[in-house]
Amino acid sequence: MLEKTYITPLGTIHYWIHIIDADIGTLVFLPGLTADHRLFDKQIEYFKDKYNVFVWDAPAHAASWPFKFDFDLFDKAKWLNEIFEQEKITKPIIVGQSMGGYVGQAYAELYPESLKGFVSIDSAPLQRKYVTLVEIWLLKRIEPVYFYYPWKSLLKSGTNGVAVSEYGRKLMHEIMMVYDGDKKRYSQIAGHGFKILANAMERNLPYEIKCPALLICGEQDHAGSCIRYNKAWHKYTGIPLEWIKDAGHNSNTDKPELVNQLIERIAMQVR
Question: Contact 130/205 with Cβ under 8 angstroms?
Fold first, then answer.
């Protein structure tokens, strides 16, 4: 994987890419809120010799820092598209975990003809109809909750709460330790992320997925109301939904072999 950068007016985005054939699909791995590119290590390892692969540290996350918190979900989608143009990626297959899935839906809204495949991993729909007023209100006010919560407690809940496997928990602990000693930055990343998510929902846009798609959700995903959202998302859109046994919110780290097979099911429709 080759590490590269893309300069925006607000900061520099770091991403990693490996291209084997410009004419085949590119798996675009987008980590969730506060996670970084390492979240998809098992996927990169499996796919790097089969497909083009791409993964980033989202704006303000890990290596993509410093970064001004003056962007929204659609800015992230636009920057992603500009990177695709820079790298001549013409067949993106977005694989988004949690917040990464929301970025993927924003991308689908802006560039519906460009997106060739979409896999949601423990994410949820962006459409306004799925969430309540109370949920949106809370999303906009999370930053102080994170800031005043003891760091050791955050570290524990942030690792044990998103994964059930030893590998998944160890990896998330390592990822969170990037912010050890800088809880303010961690709180800003989380608070800003949830706020722009709420704002995108309030725009009440279609966020329609017009390409081959798949929803993946861990049976033990207790992050927010992910299980409820995925059931409703599947019911109202007909997008296939796969439940991952013995997996939490980061199901791609708890059951990487199974999740890789499911991702490949979509990727094979694009090649």
Answer: no
